[in-house]
## 1
Amino acid sequence: MDFYLICILGLVLSFVLVYFLMIPYIDILKQHNINQEVSEYALDEYKAKAKTPIMGGLLFVLVPILVFLLINANALKETSLLIVVLSYFLFCLVGFLDDILIIVRKDNNGLSPRIKLIMEFVFISLLLIIFKDSLTYSVNIPFINGGLTFKWYIFIPLVVLMFLGEANAVNFTDGMDGLCAGVSVIGLLGFVILLFVQKQYNLVIFVLCVIGGLLAYLKYNHFPAKIFMGDSGSLALGALFSSIALVSNNEIILLFIGGVFLIEMFCVCLQLSFVKLFKKRIFSYTPIHYAFVLKGHKETKVVHGFYLATLILTIIGVILGLI
């Protein structure tokens, strides 16, 4: 089948399936009280969002994977593609366990941060060990021909850190209706361009399948959200961004394409550090998107502003990646 036709088929089929499955899925979640539990520290405006169904991420993870297997299963022979798909699925599994505990305990505390990090560390470490002979141990650096090549004992720890950081950075960004999904779509489109230029066509198809699922999910997650992705979706998306950067040697470019995620995490870390050391806050609230709401900006305007920032950073990242 023609490559462009497969791309369109994957995008459309994922979109249609997630779009129409989401309605009965939301009903099932409501029937079983699988709802968001809002933290006691949440802004008052967001406590009203309690009881909104969560785990919407399961659909935009599982459906695109199944669609891809249906239209292009033989492509999984490619190691790079296998790394991306497995990373996406395994980090979704970590998020799913976290979401389940939140539901069972009826509070906003799922897996402890330590257990969550350990699980993520184990999964990505196992993948890197299994596929160690297929890794290039190199990173493309803009303006440096050939980039840089590292020893395995330096490269692998850096990659593990990238996965853990990006997964949890995306998780921090998932806090407003449509924010995380919309930012992810824009960033993934940037990677589609870079992957296409690299002729990693099967990866292009898979990422487009994911984008199709995300766009359908976004229809139900935009303000006012009818469902949230939960950690099932946010951790998976973080692993997806990291794994794409890894197999395309674009780890540096991820700093731009995933820039909004990293800014969110940096602000949280900075805030926590200052509170512990100096008993003072730098920002009125973190994750930083909430600080804009406290200053009087409407949630939708904040989300759209983050979209614009992501678009600008993604364009910069793509340009640098093409140099």
## 2
Amino acid sequence: MEITPNPVETGGLTIKNMRTFFWLARLRSFHAVAKQVGVTQPAVTSRIASLEDELGVQLFSRERQLVTLTPEGQDALRLCESVLDRVDDIVRRYSGTAEQAGIVRIGVIDTVARTWLPTVLNRVQAEFPNIILEITNESTVALHSMLRSGALSMSITISGCDEIDVTNTEIGQYAIKWVASRELVDEDHLYTIEELKQFPLIGYLANSPPAQLMQRYFGNAKHTSAIRNTTNSMSTMIWLAENGLGIAAIPPHAILQHLQDRRLVVVKAERSFDPMPFFLNCRSRPYSPVVQTVEALVREVAAQFARDHFKTVSG
């Protein structure tokens, strides 16, 4: 009896080659794919060539250094995605989570880095010692760009990422308050919008999600002339406010030590800010079991912070 070999176990039709194929279709750059899968650029070229030889079709059109899928490549990509999904299902079902190993790249905004991110890091170290987290701290706009390029597995930001294979889930909200040096404001006074505009405002970069939040706060009352300094760094905003250079709109939970030490105080205002949502932006393909484990833990920690945050704010 003649046994026909399984094509998945022979030639170029391997899981590694299919994952490399997926990433090249996604990133359209041999250099970016090499960085993503942790191999050399020639190795990426070799894997794609091996896969094309096995399938007997050309998967990519390479003209003027542009990498685009051929019609056959588009069809093959849909099938490969299905195979990779099933492979990840098998690994998730039969692999023990404690033994999972790998690197997960997470991007976070300053507010998260200053509040509940340390809990995530400590939990991963204690419960999944073989998982390594690589953390990037940037603005929402920068993190979304990195997520699109494949440099991150997930990000935690204050808006959704408009990418077809990224899921966006709101996982909590932050209260926002005006804060300032106690030498700059009267802690007992309830400030109106017009009175707030008399202070130098420490603003966010134009068109950024936090800047839009501030625009909604002021409504039709023009405030741009009152902005003296703009930045995408919360650390810089805190430093400016602490040194009496203006008032800043910041989540109090991100500066608890500053408030306890009286380096900054909350400014009483007639109008409250809308709460600032934060989102988990997560790549949906290819979705490794290690990434899923970290995502579940992030969701759990964020949910606990949201419950504690609500109790503190409402109380």
